[in-house]
Amino acid sequence: MKKQIEVNHLSFSYHDTTILDDITLHINQGDYVAIIGPNGGGKTTFVRLLLGLREATSGTIMIAKQTPKKARNTIGYLPQYVNFNMDMPINVMEIVLQGRMQKDKLFYTKEDREIALAQLEKMQVSHLKERKIKELSGGQRQRVLLARALAKEPTILILDEPTASIDLEGQKEIYALLKSLPQTKIVVSHDINILFEGVNKVAHINKKLHLHEGVSETIRKNDGHFCEMELLDILKENHV
Fold it and tell me: Model pTM?
């Protein structure tokens, strides 16, 4: 398979504190990667390095043979927290059109609007295009923000806690939508249910990275139940 992201011996330190230590991870085109690990383990820092928002202390990241900064236009990003002023008179279509923004671009084209509408339709929220952001539920808002990321027409999607603050039914719907997308996907999540939704690689980050492949084929829910302790046992069994 074609390698799309190559991370080699990556380390990052902040004020003499090591956040990430000698991480190597290769992601192929079409992979669906879940990034898990404890709070403060370095997951968010790793994502920022992939996006070119931070510079590595040592090691390299190449995305489609380019540095993260040069490859940024190929990545659609959904951050964990998006701060909107709920009193702003901005509607759903205008939010999704932001994904078509480019440097020095002054106006949206007809094509931009067609692409934005197509992504809203894919996320099954095109009927909300005239609604204000404050009028949406948490699940609807996440669909709109995912449509904005997709409006960029990326080859890679990076999503940080895409189901946070969404009810169980909404989480299932978001996971189903993500599973259907053809892009290479990297999802940071505390929700281990993501491992049942088509993920083919699990990267556990806690300063160092341990990669587990084929975990979704190994784990099974017991009477609909699966908890973190069972996951840890399985990851230990599969870790070489």
Answer: 0.86
